[in-house]
Structure formats: C-alpha cells, structure tokens
Design a protein that fits this description.
- By secondary structure, the protein is α/β, with parallel strands linked by helices.
- It has two domains: 210 residues, D-Maltodextrin-Binding Protein, domain 2; 102 residues, D-Maltodextrin-Binding Protein, domain 2 (3-Layer(aba) Sandwich), CATH 3.40.190.
- Helix content is 43%, strand content 18%.
- The protein contains 14 helices and ten strands.
- The strands form two sheets. The protein has a five-stranded mixed β-sheet, sandwiched between helices. It has a five-stranded mixed β-sheet with strand order 7-6-8-5-9, sandwiched between helices.
- Strand 6, helix 6 and strand 7 form a beta-alpha-beta unit.
- Helix 2 crosses helix 11.
C-alpha cells in the first residue's frame, strides 16, 4: 500500500470517529453527494455502494448521475454540477496536464492479469485478413475515444509484442451498432470496445484479436473517481467517507461479481445476456501509483500529454497533510 493510501486510511479513521461521536440519541443528517458515472460495467461498485447501504453507513446520500463520457463529466465536476465524477486514467491525466484543478480520489477499476479475463478488446470481422495482433499497427481502428485510452492501451499492448512503428496506424471515431457494421463492411479494419459493447460485437459476428487491458499493463488502474480542488477543500469528511464506501464496494464486487452485473443491468437497462457474457475488470483498493507513473510517461511519449505530472501530488490524500 502506498504512503498516500496509508495516510488516507488514517485520515478516514480520524474523520469517521469525529463525525459519529454525537450526542446520544442524535443521528447525523445524511450528506447529499452528486456522483457522475459513465454507463459501463465498471460502475458496478458505485451502484452496489448505494444499493447495499455502504454510502448510507458512511453518512452519505449519493445521487448517481449518468454522463456520456469522462470528457463530458470532467467539466461538470469543475463547474459544481457534480461533486464527484469518473473518468478513465488517460482523460484524468490529460485534464491535469491542462492545469485543470482536479484531484484523483480512488481507483474505480484495474486491468486483469490475463487476456481471458480482459473485458477491453479489439475486434475484427470473422473473415478479416488481420490474424496477428501486430498487424493492427498498420490498421484503421474504430473507437469511441479518439486521442484517449484506446490509443494508449493499443500502442502499449503492441509495444509489448515488439511493435515500435505506429506511423501507419489510423483511428476512426465510431459508436453503437455503427462500430460492428463498419468492421463487417470493411470501412474500418477493427474496433476497440469496452463492455458490454464487446459482447454485442461478438454477438454481431466479430471476433477478438487483441486484449488491450491485460496486454498493455496488467494490474494498472484504468480509471479513477475525481473531484475538484474546490470541493475537496470544503468537504474533506465527505471525501473520506466516499473513499471508505468505495473501498468496501470494490471488495464486495470482487467477491460477488454477479451482483455487480445485476446492479449495472438495473441502473443502465443493459441487456442481461450481454452483461453476463462479458468478463469484468478488477476492482482494487490500491491507487496503483507506480504503474500510473509509467502510464503518464507513455502518454508523453505518444503525444497525448505535454509533460508527466508528479503523480503523488494529483491525489486528494496528498493535499490533506
């Protein structure tokens, strides 16, 4: 466990003791918190934390709101529309690279260790001429996320396979069923997808060629909950309680994956068969700081950020010293 996370645990314990030391017979009023999340399977612990009462036991009344992407959630966090939000690690580091006053709170998910358990993959047509993942280095790949996590995870995974030249790699923005039809028609060579879109792609006749989470950096945190520096300064107890509940929820979903699946089905009205056909990412308690340093360095090499940050300084816990 990193020093900043040990500090967070100590801070959490101190704040929790102070909050619940109340006059006998009195109960603290629940603190309302607006949290934005994108509709993916990685939302499972957040929903479980609300449904199972983990937030309520931390004195929080959490309103889960849906954003279309981390890119749309980040401005909402800065404006105060949301108190806490979610964005993938690349969006987080790009926002911080632009000097936006944001802080990372807690790991939302991390990459699995094996391709078999990896929910994020690149898919090709059943009769595709691409048969070796290394051929993707010269392909036109569709993705919902241009200049973002798709590019980092794909290039990193291909580098791990010995590829070094990406000059012919192209990206095309696609989403929804257009992603599947564009691959099958040959308009694009492949498509990068999370879940449950990946399970839908397989149902539509595509096949996986490259597992990008486990292939890029097994065990790395792929997304974080975030807040603004303004909210953090005014609400340290709330953030301590939020982190405590998410730690509990991450551990719970790790042990009860199907309950996590059912939670996202209820929240986002996902197709049950697709959700149950999809593997889940891991849900850690550790911030993954060592691997975050490597990701930041990669992003600078790929031109996705201008400079690498001091990753210890971009977590909320380090501001509470």
């Amino acid at each position: 466990m990193t020093p900043s996370f040990r500090l967070a645990r100590l801070l959490n314990a101190t704040l929790l003791t102070g909050l619940f030391t109340l006059t006998p017979g009195l109960r603290a009023e629940l603190v309302k918190v607006k949290v934005a999340m994108i509709p993916t399977l990685e939302a499972a612990p957040l929903i479980i934390a609300k449904d199972k009462g983990f937030f309520a036991r931390q004195n929080l009344d959490v309103d889960i709101q849906t954003g279309t992407s981390g890119a749309t959630i980040l401005p909402g966090v800065l404006s105060g529309q949301y108190d806490i939000g979610y964005a993938n690690v690349v969006s987080d580091l790009q926002a911080i690279d632009r000097k936006l006053p944001l802080l990372l709170l807690h790991a939302a998910y991390s990459h699995p260790l094996t391709a078999e358990k990896d929910p994020y993959k690149i898919y090709v047509a059943a009769d595709s001429k691409l048969t070796d993942p290394r051929q993707l280095a010269t392909a036109n790949i569709g993705t919902p996320y241009i200049n973002n996590i798709s590019e980092w995870s794909t290039k990193k995974a291909l580098e791990n396979l010995g590829v070094s030249d990406f000059s012919a790699l192209r990206w095309t923005k696609v989403s929804g069923e257009d992603a599947y039809s564009s691959v099958k028609s040959g308009a694009i060579d492949a498509v990068w997808l999370a879940q449950p879109a990946g399970a839908a792609a397989v149902k539509a006749g595509l096949k996986p060629l490259l597992a990008v989470n486990s292939g890029s950096m097994p065990g790395a945190v792929g997304g974080y909950f975030i807040t603004s520096k303004r909210f953090a300064a005014a609400n340290p107890e709330t953030l301590a309680h939020f982190n405590q509940a998410i730690s509990q929820a991450n551990a719970y979903v790790t042990q009860h994956g199907d309950e996590g699946r059912d939670a996202v089905i209820r929240q986002f009205h996902f197709d049950r068969d697709l959700v149950y056909a999809a593997p889940l990412n891991d849900f850690p308690d550790d911030a993954g700081i060592d691997k975050l340093k490597v990701i930041a360095s990669d992003l600078a090499r790929y031109g996705l950020i201008k400079s690498t940050p001091d990753v210890q300084a971009i977590f909320w816990q380090t501001t509470t010293r």
